[in-house]
Amino acid sequence: MLAKGSYSWILGIALIAILTWFGSRSLSGSIMLSSILFLLFIVASILTIFFIIFFRDPQRYPTGDEDDAVSPADGKVISIQNRTICIFMNIHDVHVNRAPLSGIVTHIDYKPGGYIPAFNKDSEVNERNHIVMKTTTGTLELTQIAGVLTRRIVSYISEGTELKRGERIGMIRFGSRVDVILPEGYVTRVKLNDVLKAGATIIAVKKDKFCKN
To answer: Which of these is catalytic: 71, 123, 155, 176?
Structure first.
């Protein structure tokens, strides 16, 4: 399965690959031009494969109980401060983001920005999308932060959208980061450098459940 909004990217570069292939075959009389077109065909073919891999969107099924918070993104934990968990998505990670808990989107604040690498502390100036959700266990905040390569956050939701735990909320193209602030009363279950799967890995549980365990 491919991410929503990715087909134009894939079809566009695939079309270039097809045209340059036929161009290189039909211009056999001009060796230099034919070679250039064939080189472009190879580059476009590699990019087509890359985009198919990058825009993959595998099915995910949340684990644990309904009030266990799952990761909003694939990637590595780069910071944990109180109830805030920062997850860095590398170029090879799935870039579709998901809701950590079920709830209703009460506020979305999109801001354009710069090109600082997403793992850098100065990435506060980057393009970002701040989402606030009202859940049965409290208020959850999630911020999508675009990275250095492309400033493009694609949102699948709007204010008032009712989300299920693990449901897709959008994607960030290329290197990027997601920060999540969990509701009061949650205890994190991950540590620095843990590798997470969006919609599947449990990142936090309610404090009373943690104490029982």
So the answer is: 176
**pLDDT tens-digit readout, 108-162:** 999 886 555 544 444 566 788 999 999 999 999 999 988 665 557 889 999 999 9
The verdict on domain 69-212 having CATH code 1.10.760.10 is: no
User: Is 28 part of the annotated catalytic residue set?
Assistant: no
Q: Which of these, 49, 73, 60, lies nearest to 175 by C-alpha position?
A: 73
Q: Are 97 and 170 in contact (CB under 8 A)?
A: yes
Global pTM reads 0.82
Could you please report the per-residue DSSP string of 65-105?
-TTSEEPSSSEEEEEEETTEEEEEEPTTS--EEE-SS-EEE
Q: Cβ atoms within 10 A of the Cβ of 39, count?
A: 12
